[in-house]
Design a protein that fits this description.
Length: 54
Amino acid sequence: MEQDIDYLAQQMMVNYHILPTDFYNSSFSDYIEAQNAQSRDKRPGRVSDFLESL
């Protein structure tokens, strides 16, 4: 498991230019949440917006 985290830190440094100190000093869940983020047009719409469009 530790090697997986180190590998992820390496990939974040190489691909996203995130310093290792920034990676290790932040919570892992923050990185996962940021990686899973979607643009507004790909997110599910709000029910109220759908009802207004009817």
